[in-house]
Amino acid sequence: MKRLRLLPIALVPAVVLGLAACSGSGSSDASSSPSASASSAAITSCPKPGKSSAAIDVSGDFGGTTAPTVTFDKGLKATPPQATTLTKGSGSDLKKGDFAQVAYSVYQASDAKKLGTVGFDQGNPQVLSVGGSGFGALLSCAHVGDRIATVGASSALGFNTGGDIVVVADVIAQTPTKSTGTPQTQDPKLPTVKDKADGEPEITIPDVDAPTTTTAEVIKQGDGATIAEGDTALVQYKGVLYKGGKEFDSSWSKGAPTTFTIAEGSLIKGFVTGLVGQKIGSQVMIVVTPEDGYGATPPEGSNIPANSTLVFVVDILAKG
Prior knowledge:
Blueprint: E1 27-28, H1 51-54, E2 57-59, E3 69-71, E4 82-87, E5 99-108, E6 114-118, E7 126-129, H2 135-139, E8 147-153, E9 164-175, E10 182-183, E11 192-195, E12 201-204, E13 215-221, E14 232-241, E15 247-250, H3 251-254, E16 258-261, H4 269-275, E17 283-288, E18 310-319
């Protein structure tokens, strides 16, 4: 499978493997996008509140369909960055390794110019990894339901705009790292799936010939939004060979979910066929024929023999 390039609006933490967060279709100047390649000056611990962050005035509904109104005096600065929790959430504490759905607006501190918004009235909230450096470090001391006003150098907060910026962020929800769907009856003529305690799937190949067409089966039925072609999705996945069941790729083995664009050109056809129309929260098993997979020319170093039938189990965690 081709990997999704780092999304231009990917916030974040130096999470793992440079993996991007799941981007919403928010309005943003490219220069206002947080970057996973933030400078070495990026913060690595929670910013404390201060006079500058307390001087940011915010009004509007938490997580609403309209971006909040943000006012502050031009030329606001803070070294090191400061962060004030304007609304204290009653949800769970976030910790390193978690993922959170966040809506946020970014302003240039020097002239109070709005640089961009993600979520609110501009697409979906963005799924961000918690911990590491930059904005991820800030999230590691937040709660679900918090509204946070932050000011500081863009590089310290993990953005690439230059200069000081103001960020107002609503922490909407925590995103699970495994499927939360309802288990479904599995067809014994297809590969069967049983989860380990942490959610990683164990895949058993049946002693029958592989299907001759790409086949998807819902292992756990989620109740979230439906995946459409072209969406970005945060997923956990494991891929094994139908013949012999050997693993060739897995986000579980890499230690973190990853993000894909669900579209041919970014992914093999069979993966797209199996996921389009599925719901967030689902776990889906996909048997991919060679014609819908890599055919006679699998990627070099992939350990996939030519003309292999592949089996993927995908937990769909969120979409942008």
